[in-house]
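so my prof wants the structure for this chain in the C-alpha cells format not the other one, which i didnt know existed until like an hour ago. anyway here's the sequence
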Amino acid sequence: MALQATYPAYQESGLPWVPKVPQGWNVLRNGRLFAHRVQTGFPDLPILEVSLRTGVRVRDMENLKRKQVMSQKEKYKRAAKGDIAYNMMRMWQGALGPAPVDGLVSPAYVVVKPFQEANSAYYSYLFRTDAYMREVNKFSRGIVADRNRLYWDEFKQMPSLVPPRPEQDQIVAYLRAQDAHIARFIKAKRDLIGLLAEQKQTIIEGAVTQGLDSGTAKRDSGIDWIRRIPAHWETCKLKHIAAFNPSRSESAVLRLTDESVSFLPMECITTDGKLQNVESRRVAEVWEGYTYFRRNDVVMAKITPCFENGKGGLLDALPTDIGFGTTEFIVLRATARRVRPAFLAKLLSLKTFRVLGADAMTGAAGQQRVPVDFHRILTQGFHLKLTCPRSFKFDHWCALNFDRGR
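here's what i got, hopefully its the right format
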C-alpha cells in the first residue's frame, strides 16, 4: 500500500534522484544531521549484527550454530540506542539500521549519532531506498566495485532530505504500521500455502495408495504403512521395479570428452520436485566424487532435514541426458515397464515413507542420514513393499493437476 497523500506545493530539491520535494523540506549534508561516534572499551555491552534483511539487532550468542568466541571486545565500537550503524562494504545494498539498544558493532562498521533534528528510523528508511543506495555507490571508493567502501568522510558529504522533525516522526509511524500490516498479510499467506501444500500431499497420498475410485473393493496389503489397497492391485519389492544408484560406467564414453552436463547441488531441487538454476559443468570436472544420474531417474535426499522435507523428485526436466549432483542424493531408476518413473517419484515422496526413513536415520544431530541398511532395504526389499497397480489409470490421476504431461 503506497502513501497517497499529496502536498499543496512542491519545490526543486537540486538532487537528480528526487527532483521535487514538498515545500518546507530541506536538503542537508549528512554531516549536518549526524556525528561520527567512535567509542571503544565497553566489553560488557551486547554484540549487535548488521543485516541486509533485518537491519541492526542483538546477535543471538546462545545459538550454537552462530556462537563465537569474541576476543578483544574492547576494540568493538559502541553504538548507543538510536544510533545508525552501517556496514561500509554493504551500505549500497542496505546493510544498516538504528541500534535497538546500546551495543557493540565490528570495528569495520561505521556508527553515526543523530542530531536532534534527525529521526534515525526515518533516515534508516531513506538510506535503504533504491535511489539513495545508488547515490551511496557514487560516494563509495575502493579498488573494485564490489569491494567499495563508504567511509565516514564520504558519508558526511552525501546530501539527504530533511522534512520537519514532526513530519519525520509521522512518516516513521505510518511505515511501521504498514510493516506490521504487511507482516500479518505475509503470515496469513504462508499459513494458507502451508494448508494447501498439506492438502496437495493428502490428495497425492490418497491417489497413489488408494486409487481414484473410493468404491473399489479393498484388501489387506501386508505392508505396515499402507494397510489396505485396491483388491486388483499387487504388491512387490522395490528391487523388482527400480535400480538403486545406477553405475556411471554406462556413460563412460563421455568421460574424456569436453561435453558439459547438468549439475545439481541440493539447493537446485525443490521440495516439490522442481528443478531450478541448474548448473552446467564439464564431464571431466564432475565424473569423480559426485552422484550420477540420467534424465527420468528419481532422486531423493538422504540427509536431514532435506529427506524429511521431501527434497527430490523426477528428473524429467534435466537439461542434458546425464547429470551429476551432490553425494547426498539417492538415485532410483524405474526398470519395470509396469511402473512409470513419475509414479515411483510420487511413492517416494509420501509422508508415510519419509517418516519410515527418518525413524531409521543415524548420525550426529543436524547431520543425520538415511543409513546404509535402509538403502539395502530399498534395493533388496527386506520387509519393504510398495503398491504397484497393474492398471495405473495414470492419465486420470494426472488430471489432479500434478505432473500433467509426464
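also thought this was worth mentioning. The chain has nine helices and 24 strands.
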